[in-house]
């Protein structure tokens, strides 16, 4: 223990994704004591890299006494440290806590949150987002939330009380990246756009195309033609295309919601991206959703509590429902 | 003149696109005497490359006497040999013939077909496809056709008599290419699929997702999850994704057609791709469209006739309507 630390470390939480790693040291109330963020995603690690990265983090925080460790994300995938089978969706907080995978390490057992699988004609999967969703779950069993997690593979999830009932993946972020880097649309921009307020206008212009009634594949080409027609400066192509793709996602997601009369979504994730999504909601005439930020540490803490990791008592001595905050 | 040639060359027609060049030597009836096809698209040529390629083709066919020359495609774009302004759509065969651009060469004047521009909130452009469309135009002024030209940037065009009245670009081919080469979807396939008939089944499986009511960005990820769920062998991911994207295009294109009660489309372009499109039409419950193949040489010949290039009489001496076959 680092003697200057006023609070006692109680949990090492990790969100270990494809490209990046975020780790938090939390106390027994779930307060964040330390944060680590690096491009140490599972695709960037050499063989044996997982153990080394974990040791480095613990050494960096001078954690001489072992603490419970819980990770979520692609670290539990077939390309991760230890594959943890998907749980079928719907899945409750308690089912997630009961389904943790185990990876022995030099510093004790690393627990890994399972991802979720939704079966059906178009099956869908998530790994990591289930933990972020747990981080904003209420304790009211009758509450109903729609949680939107923007990103490379955006997720729209339905949450009823402490159960994730349904979700859908939109490849919005990845589509944007591959189209800007590798398609004819990305060849146009020549200069970085100045931060002059016009970026939001170009973004909104792209968002509004979602209301045209023309499907996505028939609107993408407009990111080129609006420049050819001098309706958009080419430096703003990325903002327009981002708006076009995010607008598509929100238009489709909200159309599905309106059919079921669910509540206004909550945005979870990186704040700047959530703000762009919020702008798109308002451009499309929807109320602005609230932004919850990154709820992964809260979700990890909550799952650790539900799995009785914090008190280090074997979980079979506890009521299966556990004591959750 | 090559003495063994029974027919007299009357027109050199060129479809000079971004990545490839197709050239045809035609007689006075529009019969193809010679064909040249090479990866000599405008993006593959060094400075001055246009003139050299043209000279090489004429030398290869031993054309000692000059012939009228007419080109369509990206050769008329800002990155081509000579920029020819877009004509506004709707545009008739005669307007296209009257709008030819001119590029002097060592072998006489090269005429270049203008592209078309459709203005509106989502502007659209074509270069080259207008000539293919002219190639299947009837002579009945009251006929109505929908022409579908599959490709990197697929076009759906409405043709009334000899007028192209409307069109829409779908970035289907380019989306497929960038997703297979650069996204997570393309990382899965490990082996080339055997030609065992199952490729069409995987393609049809992708096509059918267009009927799910879920928009494109929310279905793309299924190209990964159907493999994870063992519903599709990973070797067939490309066929599934191709079906998903082509299905989207046809579903959207036909929905727009049904709203206007236009006729069953005609497919124009490379035969193997047209056959895949035809399969997708039937999978989605539509009648199989006819396949017209590559109509660019017919279109070039027709435009050359309308522009009075074949008889080498100055066009101002002719009736503007010209004599078209």
UniProtKB/TrEMBL annotation, chains A, B:
Protein name: 2-dehydro-3-deoxygalactonokinase
Organism field: Komagataeibacter oboediens
A Pfam family that the UniProt record links to this protein: DGOK
InterPro entries (alphabetical): DGOK, DGOK_C, DGOK_N
């Amino acid at each position: 223990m680092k003697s200057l630390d006023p609070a006692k470390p109680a949990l090492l939480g990790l969100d270990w994704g494809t490209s990046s790693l975020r780790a938090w040291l939390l106390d027994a109330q779930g307060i964040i004591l330390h944060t680590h963020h690096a491009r140490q995603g599972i695709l960037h690690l050499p063989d044996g890299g997982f153990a080394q990265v974990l040791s480095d983090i613990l050494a960096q925080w001078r954690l001489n006494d072992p603490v419970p460790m819980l990770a979520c994300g692609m670290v539990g995938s077939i390309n991760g440290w230890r594959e943890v089978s998907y749980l079928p969706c719907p899945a409750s907080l308690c089912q997630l806590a009961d389904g943790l995978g185990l990876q022995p390490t030099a510093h004790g057992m690393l627990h890994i949150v399972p991802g979720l699988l939704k079966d059906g004609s178009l099956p869908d999967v998530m790994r990591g987002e289930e933990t972020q969703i747990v981080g904003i779950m209420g304790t009211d069993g009758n509450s109903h939330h729609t949680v939107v997690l923007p990103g490379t593979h955006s997720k729209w999830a339905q949450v009823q009380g402490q159960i994730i009932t349904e979700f859908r993946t939109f490849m919005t972020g990845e589509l944007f990246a591959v189209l800007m880097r590798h398609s004819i649309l990305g060849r146009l921009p020549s200069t970085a756009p100045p931060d002059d307020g016009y970026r939001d206008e170009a973004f909104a212009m792209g968002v509004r195309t979602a209301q045209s009634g023309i499907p996505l594949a028939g609107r993408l080409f407009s990111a080129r033609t609006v420049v050819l027609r001098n309706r958009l400066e080419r430096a703003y192509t990325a903002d327009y295309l981002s708006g076009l793709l995010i607008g598509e996602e929100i238009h489709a997601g909200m159309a599905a919601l309106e059919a079921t009369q669910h509540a206004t979504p909550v945005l979870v994730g990186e704040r700047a991206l959530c703000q762009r999504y919020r702008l798109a909601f308002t451009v499309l005439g929807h109320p602005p959703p609230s932004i919850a930020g990154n709820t992964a540490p809260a979700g990890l803490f909550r799952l650790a509590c539900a799995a009785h990791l914090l008190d280090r008592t074997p979980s079979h001595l506890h009521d299966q429902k556990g004591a959750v905050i």
